[in-house]
Structure formats: C-alpha cells, structure tokens
C-alpha cells in the first residue's frame, strides 16, 4: 500500500516520540512491503516561533494533501502562566481539529495485564477494564462564541453550543462502535442542569431505536467521574461532549498505569489524525527518557484505520513484548530495575516487527 503520512511532531518530547513511531512504521513498511511517504510540518509553539502562527497555512496544506496525520504533542511552559499571550500553541491544535473536520476523538482505555500492578488503583478494580471514550471534538465550549471579557476586564464568558447535526453524527459513530464491541453505550452529560446536555439526551433517545442491539444508558458527568474510578469494567463505549470528554479521559488514563501508554484517533472528514493523549512533557524534552509507546500505539491505530489490521496487530504485539521483556521507560520500570531510553524502546519494537 502507498500511504501519504503527514508528520507533525510539535513541541517538547513530540519530535522524539514521533521519531520512534516512524522507526516502527518503517519497520512495518519493510516487512509487509508498503510504501510510506512522510511530509513534516510545524504546529504549536515551534510554529509560533518560526512563523508567528501556531497552525500555518502550509501545515494545513500538508495535512490536506495526506491520507493520515501522525501528531506528537504541543505546548510550551512559556505560555502556561501568561494569560496575556494573544497567540497560544493550543489554538493551533483547535484550528487543526476544526479545519480538518475531526469531530470525533476516540480514546481507547485498556489495561495491559502485565501493567495492572502499576495503576494507582487496586489491581482487582482495574483488571479487565476495556472501554473507549468517544469525545466530541469540534463543538461545545471550546468553540462556542461569544467568548471573552467585558470591557472593564472583570467579567468573562464562554458559550456552550451544540446543534442537532453535531450531536447526531457523533452519536451515530458511538452507537456504531458499540455495535462492534460489547454493545453498551453510556451517554455522559449534565442534563439536570445544562441545556445542551438535555438536547444530547433527547437525541440519544431518538436514535436508540435504530440500534436495538445496543443498550443505551445515561449518566451524569459527576457520577461518571466517580464510576470510572470505582468500576472501570462497567464501561464499554462512553460518548460525551468536548469538555467533559477532555476531563474524563485524563482521569481514565490513570487506570492503565501510565498516561504514556494511551493512543488516540481523531476522525471525521477525509483525513484522520493520530496522537498520544499525553502532552508535550517539556521537562523531559531532549533527554531521551519519554515513553514513546502511546505514539507507537497511535501508529497502530493509524494502520488499522487504513485497513492494515495485521500490521496494526504486529505493532501491538511488539509493544506487549517490550513490556513483558521489561524494555520500558522510567514511568513503567519496576522498582529497582533500570529504565530504558526512548530510542531503546523504539528500537526494540521496530526490531521485533522486523
Ligand atoms: C487534549 C488537550 C487539548 C484539549 C489542549 C492541549 C487544547 O488537553 O487533546 O486533550 O483540551 O483538547
Ligand atoms: Mn486533554
């Protein structure tokens, strides 16, 4: 297969972890006879430094001209405590999502048996947890307008907006995913308080008869935050709006033992984007210590997305092997064991595939 892959390493550890994922993709290409063609582009703080724009038109053009995008992370501490900064790296990510039509963010949450003991939660609670969060990605409070400040600067406001069309398309996607899994869909909202949530719940009920084989349950987001920690095995597919999904998936990531293990896919229009759910981890940048597995597993999702199931599985198996063999970075290393570097983990996974 010929595949055009846009590479957006971004900031912090982004270039290192994307580099390891490319190593793994190259190994897949060699082994299975594919041709992967890469085009690099800037996004985030590095794009601001180079061009003044966190998502330059050139980067958008590279993404549009590709079949898929592999993205690292964005963010730089110099912006975090500077509320006055007019241009922020995060704006690049949001504009990229919106302009590529990536309305659904899929965040799978599975516990690797051999890592269950690394979770801060009790092993008997997390063992066997396997669910996927479908986060709406281009609506809600992130994009609703008006957003801003009053003239005197003492009042701030955001707007949460959802249209029927936006809710229907993400719910159809979530029902469809549930149908291919254990057939259980949890719609997370705050319908007891928020108007947009009431529309989500209403439309959920309207669509449910089209998916009679899927069991639909509703859950308030505050309760869901608790249930995810107390009974993670309860869930199969969770679907929710943008902001709730952002928060719940960071929370859910602790179940697996390391944020460094979790991949994600953003889909919608033509081009799909794959990225680890963690951030740019600036303290680790350039030190060759960051865990590349989430990005490598994002590459596995990328392969499966374009129909290369066997290749995706080969990547997953190789990651499992690395974990079993103790070839892991410091976030996962057993107490007293020597941690491997970012490149050592990538070399092992790529080597195992070859
Ligand atoms: C994520 C991140 C982003 C978000 C930030 C960096 C804008 O936290 O992908 O979850 O809030 O969506
Ligand atoms: Mn987030």
TrEMBL record:
Its EC number is 1.1.1.85. GO terms for molecular function: 3-isopropylmalate dehydrogenase activity; magnesium ion binding; NAD binding. It is found in: Cytoplasm. The keyword Hydrolase does not apply. One of its GO terms (cellular component) is cytosol. It is an enzyme of class 1 (oxidoreductase). One of its GO terms (biological process) is L-leucine biosynthetic process. InterPro entries: IsoCit/isopropylmalate_DH_CS (IPR019818), IsoPropMal-DH-like_dom (IPR024084), Isopropylmalate_DH (IPR004429). Its cofactor is Mn(2+); Mg(2+). Substrate binds at residues 97, 107, 135, 222. Homodimer. This is 3-isopropylmalate dehydrogenase.
């Amino acid at each position: 297969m010929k595949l055009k892959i846009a590479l957006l390493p971004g900031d912090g550890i982004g270039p290192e972890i994307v580099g390891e994922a490319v190593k793994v993709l190259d190994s897949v290409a060699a082994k299975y006879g594919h041709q992967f063609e890469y085009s690099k582009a800037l996004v985030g703080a590095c794009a601001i430094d180079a061009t003044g724009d966190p998502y330059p038109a050139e980067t958008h053009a590279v993404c549009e001209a590709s079949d898929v995008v592999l993205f690292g992370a964005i963010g730089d501490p110099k912006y975090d405590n500077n509320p006055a900064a007019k241009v922020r790296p995060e704006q690049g990510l949001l504009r990229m999502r919106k302009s590529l039509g990536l309305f659904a963010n899929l965040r799978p949450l599975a516990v690797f048996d051999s890592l269950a003991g690394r979770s801060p939660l009790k092993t008997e609670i997390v063992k066997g947890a396997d669910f996927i969060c479908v986060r709406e990605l281009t609506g809600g409070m992130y994009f609703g307008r008006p957003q801003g400040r009053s003239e005197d600067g003492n009042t701030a406001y955001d707007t949460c907006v959802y249209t029927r069309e936006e809710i229907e398309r993400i719910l159809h996607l979530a029902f469809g995913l549930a149908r291919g899994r254990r057939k259980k869909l949890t719609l997370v909202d705050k319908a007891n308080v928020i108007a947009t949530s009431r529309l989500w719940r209403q439309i959920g009920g309207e669509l449910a008869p089209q998916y009679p084989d899927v069991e639909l349950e509703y859950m308030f987001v505050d309760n869901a935050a608790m249930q995810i920690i107390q009974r993670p095995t309860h869930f199969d597919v969770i679907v929710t709006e943008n902001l709730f999904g952002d928060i719940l998936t960071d929370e859910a990531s602790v179940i697996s033992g390391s944020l460094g293990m979790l991949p994600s896919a953003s889909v919608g229009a033509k081009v799909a984007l794959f990225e680890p759910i963690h951030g740019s981890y600036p303290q680790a940048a350039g030190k060759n210590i960051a865990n590349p597995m989430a990005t490598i597993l994002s590459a596995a999702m990328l392969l499966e997305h374009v129909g290369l199931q066997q290749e995706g599985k080969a990547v997953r198996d190789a990651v499992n092997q690395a974990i079993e063999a103790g070839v892991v970075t410091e976030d996962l290393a057993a107490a007293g064991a020597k941690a491997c570097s970012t490149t050592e983990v990538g070399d092992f996974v790529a080597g195992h595939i070859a």
